[in-house]
Amino acid sequence: MQIENAKDIIVCDGVKKWFGDFQALKGVTTTIKEQEVVVVIGPSGSGKSTLIRCINRLEAHQEGSIVVDGIELTNDLRNIEKIRSEVGMVFQQFNLFPHLTVMDNITLAPMWVRKKPRDEAEETGMELLERVGIPEQANKYPGQLSGGQQQRVAIARALAMRPKIMLFDEPTSALDPEMIKEVLDVMKELALSGMTMIVVTHEMGFAREVADRVLFFDYGTIVEDGTPEHFFTNPQHDRTKLFLSQIL
Amino acid sequence: MAVTVATHERPPFWRNATVLKWAAQLVLVAFLAIVILTLRAQAATNIEDRGITFGTKWLDDPPLISIREGIDLQPDSGARALYAGIVNTLRVSISGILAATILGTIIGVARLSHNWIVNKIATVYIETIRNIPLLVQILFWLAVIQIFPALDEDSVGESLFLVTAKGVSIPWLFPAGGFYQWLVFLIIGAVVAGFVYFRLSRLKEERGGETYAFWWSVVAFVAIAVIGWFIHPVMAFWGPIFDGISSFFGAIPRVLVQILLAAVAVLAGTLWIRRFLESMRTPAGLAKLTDDDWFRMIFVGLMALIGAALFVFLPGISQTILNMVEAFFNFLGAKFSGESVAPLTYTTPAVELRGTGGFAQLSDQALVITPGFFALWVGVTLYTAAFIAEIVRGGILAVNKGQSEAGLAVGLTRAQLLRFVVLPQAFRIVLPPIGNQYLNLFKNTSLGIAVAFPDIVQVGQTIYNQTGQTFPVVILWMAFFLTGSLVLSSIVNYFNRRLKLVER
């Protein structure tokens, strides 16, 4: 694979995380390289969302270490803010700011975190809206858009910070079936452009077609780790086989 | 099958929903009018039997009362006494609303705190305060102030703070001779500060980076205020201008104002109807007007005519407006003397001997918070703050957690997250219920009567005890509270409309 020589951009080592008595992550160790597209699959409650939320510290891990782009995630607020501005995130429920227009949603962080002038931020915003295919919606409010359009705005909002890594937390799970494709198309285009991506999803077609690597999660650990081909045709573990037999 | 459906035929009026709706309302209004007129006639006879006549003479007569605190302690007319009461009511209401908002917000946020002690203190506060009747709490605070040391001849003298059984006195800045001349500088300062803020914010948007717009605007305001403090007599030229305006209004004949106001009323009605018709206009021409539309237009037209008639047949209204404007500018004119007097005077609390018996009292030279004001103000503030705290807590909780996560995920700091994402959304949620609490506080100040605080209710009651003019006084009370509440709620509604979310 062409990315084998690329540099490591996310290094997780023995990451553990508890919610009260419940252990969500039981020592996750994995390395993600630049430009790699990693799809994370697994039953609900298996810890896959928790892992990517730990990577931009929306959740704090309790043991082990996570290093993103050479910066270790600790309680140092400056590091956290720096990493968050390098790591874009797209949520299942879009989480657009309902009181701001689409354009203001996109330009808010570039203007106040990156201190960009408004003109420049809006120019970038318009380019991104064209990239996700909805430039004509720039002055509408999120409540006036369809779910698929909202999720594409959310992707544009994350891209506006020019992140090195994009995290997707079940981006299509809250969408009507006919809108899933428009969001997946945008994500495919993004993957082809060389963005480092971690995608938590149930879209097996996307995993098969776009992923460089598939991680299968169960009970807070990585059960299976390999190429999509390996994962879908020749899984090693019984748990993976059972999961695949249920969903395919 | 031949089914004829006559869609455009007007139904007979007894089946026409619109006609019936309006007819029902008219009948109700007529019924209420008859009831009220009958009761009034009945009351008039009964009262006449007792030898009382209701009228407006008591408004002009000097009342035999002195008011404990406020703008006028020995009012020379009933109207003036009520006005002093109104000012006292507004003093408690406005300062109470400000304090309750600040305190309520702090307590509401504290209740969400992860700090155990802070959280529990806030919870205990809310649960205690809102489960005890407000009247009991006001009486409690009056009892509290009576624990403080009493005053006697030995306490005469000055000190920085005085907390006594006769009230609390704190150092204060009072407007003095040069105040109004300085005020012009403050207004200029505010305008300049606004301009600086606007320019620097624009600059930040155009060029990026940080321009510290807020801090520079503060600097501009303070600088102009300080300069104005020393050179305020240069504003003296406003004096003759205000005098001129005053005599200009004094010279306007009353008839002209009457005609003008009547014309405005008619014009407002006409404009409303024209705008209404405009909104009915479609590309295909005027939409067909329903019966309901006709009734609405007729109603507005009638109201405009009644308003115009009032101005024409009651010259007193126009005269009063004229007099007030004239007096206002006359008052302003006298304040711009050109003398260099300090705009504010600083005073410290003192105890002095006053009255025929030479009783020790708190001197008026500093700000005196009387026991009545203290008990009422603390009572309504703490009470309302408890409810506001719950509203604030609910508002913050109601902003989806995903909003904060999305804001953090794009790299906003905690402060930016609050400013741009959480507060604008929370504010929209809490505004209507907080507006309700403001109304409650305003109305609850009437409980001041229990601690002898001379608000409009207490003063009014004293007046009707002396004159027997119960009905006129009560009607004035109700008109005052109704007007105040409507003004408050229209302010809140205005902001509420402006903040409404745009949805599809």
What would you note in describing this structure?
The complex is a heterodimer of chains A (248) and B (504). Chain A has 248 residues and is an alpha/beta fold. Chain A has helices at 48-55, 77-86, 102-112, 118-131, 147-159, 177-192, 204-210, 228-233, 238-247, and strands at 8-19, 22-33, 37-41, 63-68, 71-72, 87-90, 165-169, 196-200, 213-218, 221-226. In chain A, strand 1 and strand 2 form a beta hairpin. In chain A, helix 3 (102-112) crosses helix 4 and helix 5 runs parallel beside helix 6. The mean pLDDT of chain A is 91. By secondary structure, chain B is mainly alpha-helical. In chain B, 67% of the residues lie in helices and 7% in strands. Chain B contains 16 helices and 10 strands. Chain B has helices at 17-49, 57-60, 78-111, 116-129, 134-145, 179-207, 213-231, 238-251, 254-280, 291-313, 315-335, 371-398, 401-409, 414-444, 456-467, 470-498; strands at residues 157-158, 162-164, 167-170, 172-175, 281-282, 285-286, 344-347, 350-354, 359-362, 367-369. The longest helix of chain B has 34 residues, at 78-111. The interface between A and B is medium-sized, with 35 and 29 residues.
Shape of chain B: globular
Mean pLDDT of chain A: 91
The assigned structural class of chain A equals alpha/beta
Low-confidence stretches of chain B: none
Quick one: how many beta strands of chain A? 10
Secondary structural class of chain B = mainly alpha
Largest interface pair: A-B, 35 and 29 residues
Helical proportion of chain A, percent range = 25-40%
Number of helices of chain B: 16
Q: Assess the beta-strand content of chain B as a share of residues.
A: 5-15%
- Termini gap of chain A: 27 Å
Order of strands across the biggest sheet of chain A?
Answer: 6-7-8-3-9-10
Main sheet attributes: strand count, strand direction, barrel closure of chain B: 3 strands, antiparallel
The helix/strand series of chain B, from N terminus to C terminus, equals: HHHHHEEEEHHHHEEHHEEEEHHHHH
Task: Quickly count the helices of chain A.
Answer: 9
Strand content of chain A: 25-35%
Basic shape of chain A:
globular
